Amino acid sequence: PRSIAKFFGNAEDLYQMGPTVGVGAQGQVYKCEKLSTCMCYAAKVVDTWSTRGTRSNFARESLEEEIQNMRRLEHPCIMKVVEDFWERGERIIVMDFAQHGD
Prior knowledge:
It comes from Strombidinopsis acuminata. One of its GO terms (biological process) is mitotic DNA damage checkpoint signaling. Pfam families: Pkinase (PF00069). Residues 15-102 form the Protein kinase domain. The protein is α+β, with helices and mostly antiparallel strands. It has one domain (7-96): Phosphorylase Kinase, domain 1 (2-Layer Sandwich). The chain is built from one helix and six strands; from the N terminus they run E-E-E-E-H-E-E. It has one helix at 53-72; strands at residues 7-8, 15-23, 27-34, 39-47, 81-87, 90-96. A six-stranded antiparallel beta sheet has the order 1-2-3-4-6-5, with helices on one face.
């Protein structure tokens, strides 16, 4: 597996990547810290290079739709999307961090 950047995001919203807290079909989830606030979040990292061709387009469209749907949902049992980034071919989705999982 490829290693990901230790830091990601733009200058105002720089995050430091921490340990892996989960692995799923779409990628890995890491604990991360927003450096400007010292707040902890979960960063879901989806490798968009792993799919090619038509499937790749479908996978990216599905991922973007998932992000938009997650942004609209407001429920105490659903992790809120804080922000998202494209970083070196990976889609990074920053969400609230649940200490004991989702």
